[in-house]
Write a structure and sequence with these properties.
9 helices; 220 residues; mainly alpha; MetI-like fold; 0% strand
């Protein structure tokens, strides 16, 4: 098997076109998960009646199931209940990725909150701060730099995990990079091209997130 750099370049150009699709599949669920995951973390930390137990069970069960399996299960449910369509499949991918990211983000945020000594809360309450004021002015500014390293890893993982939409027939960077391979049935160049693109995207994202970590660490 001969590796062709000319063919690799063709696969790279084909894959680059689908970078926006991959970024949407990774970042939209992640942004939603930041909100939902924080709510779950706070509900568990402050032990909200009933809700805390429900979220705890949800995290325990869902985090033990591989993302690929949940994607396939939801896809089969979708096919049996709705008329298949491109937009519907994309929404299914968003939904599945959002659930997965929410679990990971909630655990990252919960760990960051638990790293803050209880004395911080007690001191704030003794000064007359409400719970909301304590979180906004004292706790959250300390939580952000603690949570950012894990959130960075979650972001990089989210970008890489988008490649599993292959099973749904959606075209992202991985599928896009292998489109030219249908002509020769030599897929090595296509997979190498996809690997290069994923690495480049993650390198750029990691560069900015590490700078963000340093910025908040200084404030801490």
């Amino acid at each position: 098997m001969k590796f062709s750099f000319e063919y690799l370049w063709k696969c790279l150009l084909s894959g680059l076109v689908y970078i926006p699709v991959t970024l949407r599949l990774a970042l939209i669920p992640l942004f939603i998960a930041l909100f939902l995951g924080t709510l779950i973390a706070l509900a568990r930390i402050f032990k909200v009646p009933v809700v805390e137990k429900v979220f705890k069970a949800f995290v325990a069960v869902y985090s033990g199931i591989p993302l690929m399996i949940t994607l396939l299960i939801f896809h089969l449910i979708y096919l049996s209940c709705f008329k298949p369509g491109k937009n519907g499949t994309m929404m299914l991918a968003y939904f599945t990725f959002t659930l997965s990211r929410t679990i990971l983000v909630s655990e990252s945020v919960r760990g960051a909150f638990l790293s803050i000594p209880k004395g911080q809360y007690e001191a704030a309450f003794s000064c007359g701060f409400s719970t909301f004021q304590t979180l906004r002015k004292i706790i959250i500014p300390q939580v952000i730099p603690v949570a950012l390293p894990n959130l960075t890893n979650n972001t990089l993982g989210a970008i890489k995990n988008t490649s599993i939409v292959l099973v749904l027939g959606l075209v992202d960077v991985l599928n896009g990079s292998t489109i030219p391979c249908a002509d020769t049935y030599s897929y090595v160049e296509g997979y190498v091209a996809a690997a290069i693109i994923y690495w480049a995207i993650n390198a750029v994202v990691e560069f900015f997130l590490v700078r963000l970590e340093k910025h908040f660490s200084k404030k801490r």
